[in-house]
Amino acid sequence: MQTAARPAANAPHRLAGRAADLLIDAPTVSPAHTNQDVFQLFDHHPALSGLPVIEDGRPIGLINRNIFMDSFARPFHREVYSHKSCIAFMDKSPLVVEAATPLQELSFRAVEHGGKTLTDGFIVTADGDYTGMGTGIDLVRAISELQAERNRQVMESIAYASVIQRSFLRPSREALQKLLPDHLLLWEPRDTVGGDAFYFTPRGAGFVATLFDCTGHGVPGAFMTLIMASFIENALIAEPDCSLTALLGRVNRGVKRALGQIDHSHADESESQERSDDGMDGGFLAWEPATRTLRYAGARTPLLLLRPGAAEVEQIDGDRAGVGYAGTPLEQAWTEQALTLEPGTLVCVASDGLYDQPGGPKRIAFGRKRLYALLLEHRAAPLPQLRQALVAAYGDWQGEEPRRDDLSVLAFRI
Question: Could you tell me which residues come within 8 angstroms of residue 276 by beta carbon, excluding any fewer than 6 positions away?
């Protein structure tokens, strides 16, 4: 009888990355050893779950402690088997892995090998020669520690991605605050980062603004917001005085070409699954104070107006085509509407994360009528007060329901 050639690697106390990191001190036996020898080893090592059987330096099996002890305790079994070779109770097909096997691959192989790996353990080799063994409990612990470390790294990355996304939005937020002090900006990602974003920049004596909702939420959505904002900004740099129709067209063509979303109609099923189909919905606005004209173009996003003295909120619908999607034509043209607004008109654009959030006693969507009612109720109040009322109403409506999507609202008075 001998012990493993390599010492234990203290696997439970440090992060493991391969099978060799899980080695423990364990005695071994050979076919020349008897079952009485095995019994004595298990008796002297109560924590030992399995006993490797080695012949000419190579593993040929593994003896499970519980199976062996149960069998040895049966009437007359000790008398019959005590002096026979230990291979009588040996599992001839234990899990055997090379020392360099990555921990994740080891876990997959353990699952494929069946539940016995968790109770028996597994054998580790180097070029086929026995190196040591590991236990199922250490494998589970190492996988848990590895997953926890990966989750920590992912969460740190996402937290920093939030810093990047908020930094990217800061210039628009500051410009909005400077030009429109009485405004409402509500931007709440469902996760740490999100697929909703806004863009606001001065143009002449007025401004260009957009609130947009990209495909997805979380990290994928945040990536899309950076892509979309980059195309919006580049389009305005290339043609500062372009119409909203031209602006949307430039962004649409840029996204479709950049992501290869020109035409998926002729792709087979496997190709379609590998191709992206991402884009955005949004409302685009351009304000011209000299003529008090608000120009609007919407991609599946309505514009809401509450004019002074009006009894109802006015809804201006946009086009039904999203921006950048595979199904949106490359030469899609969005309609630009010119609206003359009286002083004091309230302008509002919201993402569908507001309208679609389920809640209330019947678990139905928040809807547009509730937003309209809030706009009417607080039409004379400062917009920060309207923001507080909207957040409170939305929170009460959501209740215990999980947040479905990112939430964004932009409102201001002209």
Answer: 259, 260, 261, 326
Q: Which of 354, 340, 339, 361 is nearest to 391 (CA)?
A: 354
Cβ–Cβ under 8 Å, residues 183 and 176: yes
Nearest CA to 386 out of 358, 350, 339 is that of 350
CA quadruple 27, 29, 35, 36: dihedral positive or negative? negative
At 180, the amino acid letter reads L
- C-alpha pair distances (Å), 319 with each of 18, 269, 281, 283, 352: 55, 29, 10, 10, 15
Predicted pLDDT of residue 118: 82
Task: State pLDDT tens for residues 264-304.
Answer: 555 555 555 567 899 999 999 999 999 999 999 999 999 99
Shared domain check, 239 and 287: yes
Are 307 and 398 contained in the same domain? yes
Residue 82 is classified by DSSP as T
Q: What is the pLDDT of residues 51-82, one digit of tens each?
A: 999 999 999 999 999 899 988 888 888 889 89
What CA–CA distance (Å, rounded) separates 312 from 373?
A: 9
Whether residues 129 and 191 share a domain: the answer is no
3-class DSSP state for residue 59? Answer: strand
Locate tokens 């520690």: which residue? Answer: 145
Task: Reduce the DSSP state of residue 8 to 3 states and report it.
Answer: coil
Which of 73-82, 83-92, 400-409 shows the lowest per-residue confidence on average (mean pLDDT)? 73-82
Hey, which residues does 281 pair with through a beta bridge?
Answer: 213
The pLDDT value given to residue 77: 84
Percent of the chain with pLDDT over 70: 93
**Degrees (nearest 5) of the Cα angle 176, 181, 184?**
70
CATH number at residue 13: 3.10.580.10
CATH code (residue 374): 3.60.40.10
Please determine, for residue 9, whether its predicted confidence score (pLDDT) is greater than 50. no
Which helix (H) or strand (E) segment holds residue 408: the answer is strand 407-413
10/168: higher pLDDT? 168
Q: Within a domain: residue 343? A: yes
- The sign of the torsion formed by the CA atoms of 153, 156, 162, 163 equals negative
Contact predicate 56/26, CB 8 Å = no
Handedness of CA 210, 215, 221, 226 (dihedral sign): negative
- Tell whether 90 and 235 lie within a shared domain: no
**By residue range, what is the domain housing residue 224?**
180-413
